[in-house]
Amino acid sequence: MTKYMLIQTSLLGRKDDVYERFMRCGRMLPDGLIYIYSWLEKDGARCFQLMATDDYRLFKEWIAHWSDTTHFEIVEIGRKPIK
Hints:
With 83 residues, this protein is an alpha+beta fold. Helices cover 20% and strands 37% of the residues.
């Protein structure tokens, strides 16, 4: 399974909308897109999420729930650990 780091940045003036929707609806992940862990930037405007999937196309489905409030950058994480 491939791991990805998502950098989720709230659009200007939409940060509160992101949190409200999350509290109401949860992450809204499609089956096969796995949430592992997340970290928030100090001011809460950016969220860094570690996720995994065997089907990259699932990100398109998930992002559709959030694209009106958030910009996404998706970075594939290397499969071998750094020693």
